[in-house]
Amino acid sequence: MPLFSIRYSPALHFLFLQILNINFTFYYHLQQQSGIPALL
User: Fold this and answer.
1) Mean pLDDT of all residues in the chain?
2) How many CA atoms lie within 13 A of 37 on its CB side?
3) Mean pLDDT, rounded, for 11-37
4) Using CB atoms within 10 A as the burial measure, which of 4, 28, 34, 40 is most buried?
5) Distance, CA of 4 to CA of 35 (rounded, Å)
6) Distance (Å) of CA 40 to CA 2, 7, 9, 11, 28
7) Domain of life, per the record (predicted)?
């Protein structure tokens, strides 16, 4: 992952955090519905 670009770009950093949040929510609901532990 290009961490260097996230450091000097607050907008990109915010977008990265939003994507992480969406992915975490998706995997959490997927784990709750299927009963299979999500690999994080």
Assistant:
1) 74
2) 2
3) 81
4) 28
5) 37
6) 19, 23, 25, 25, 10
7) Bacteria
The terminus-to-terminus CA distance of the chain in angstroms comes to 16
Show Cβ contacts of residue 5 under 8 Å, excluding neighbours closer than 6 positions: 12
* Statement: residue 24 has pLDDT above 70: yes
- Give me 31's structure tokens: 């784990």
Which pLDDT band holds residue 11 (cuts at 50, 70, 90)?
confident
Q: How far apart are CA 19 and CA 6, in angstroms?
A: 13
Q: Is the dihedral of CA 3, 11, 13, 27 positive or negative?
A: negative
